[in-house]
Structures are given as structure tokens and as C-alpha cells.
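Last lecture ended with a question: if I hand you only a sequence, what can you say about the shape of the protein? Today we answer it with a concrete record. The protein is Protein RER1. Below, first the input exactly as provided, then the predicted structure, then a couple of comments.
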Amino acid sequence: MEGVGGDGVSGAAASLNQRGHEVWKLFQYYLDKSTPHAVYRWIGTCVLLVLYALRVYYIQGFYIVTYGLGIYILNLLIGFLSPLVDPEMEPSDGPLLPTKGSDEFKPFIRRLPEFKFWYAITKAFCVAFGMTFFSIFDVPVFWPILLCYWLVLFVLTMKRQIMHMIKYKYIPFNIGKQKYTGKKPVSGSSSRAD
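The predicted structure:
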């Protein structure tokens, strides 16, 4: 007599599993729909940032959670600003990024794409916000020391990243669409026959 009394439990588990799968599909659908709307996604994340900052300010605690969140975001920022193939780490026959105007154009491909960067930051703010509801994560610390340490870490990390950008001559941001201006006429070679 296998399954006596077990069919109800396994049926409920299967139903719950199916519901979870449907919720995940719905979440993925809306996540995919939000992909082309970068400005609105980032505005939503900024709203989460403000809500989190207000909650931490109002409670006057959870500074260690905020410090951990800052370190995680700094790590994500490094991935966002770094090229997919680091010329310093990858041994190659020649330069991977163009260094002169005559080199072949190779677009900048990020190690961490913008969408994944946004999604990871948004998840991090949601997790950190959720952690503020549990007193176990409110470790008493002297927050000015954490802030100073994080600022020093940020400055040193960004200095190293900027030096890397200068050394390998890449810009990780698109500054608008490049416009073709055409060939510029040489003033001495255009003569009219009258």
C-alpha cells in the first residue's frame, strides 16, 4: 500500500511548484518587458535607494548592512566599467582595444552588461531593505569609521580603474550616436573652371 495518505501531500507540493513556476514566468515576462526602458528602470532603483536611505536614517541603525551594500555595489561598478576581455590579464598577440585612429574599430563590451548591473543593484537594495526588518542584522558599529573606510576604498579603486582606462584608451560610456560628417574639402584643391 504505497502512497496511502501521501497523494495529498505530493499533489499539494506539485500544485505549489506549478504556482511558483507560473509566478516566476510572470516575473520574467515583466522583467523582459522592462529591458528597453533603461531610464525608467534606473528611476525605480533610485526610488528604492531613497526608501532604503530613509529607513536607515529613521531607524538609526543597520550601518553594517549599508556598508556591505556599498562594497557590493562598488564590486558591481568595477565589473560595469571593465572590458569583457581585459588586455592586462589576457595574453594575446597584439592589443585587443584600438590604440590608434588607424586601428580596427572594436566596440567596448562590458564585463557586466547594463541590464545585469541594474538588476543586481536592484536586488541588492531589496535584500538590504528586507534585512532592516530583522534586528539580528543591526550590529552596533561606529558608522563614521565605516564611511571613511568605504570612501578611501572607493577613491583607490576608481583611481586604479581610471588609470586602466587611460592606459588602454577605452571609454566605457556611449556619449551619444557618432555622426558622420563626411569628407572635408581641401581648400586648395577645389578650383573652378570659368
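Comments.
1. The radius of gyration is 26 Å.
2. Residues 131 and 137 are 7 Å apart (CA to CA).
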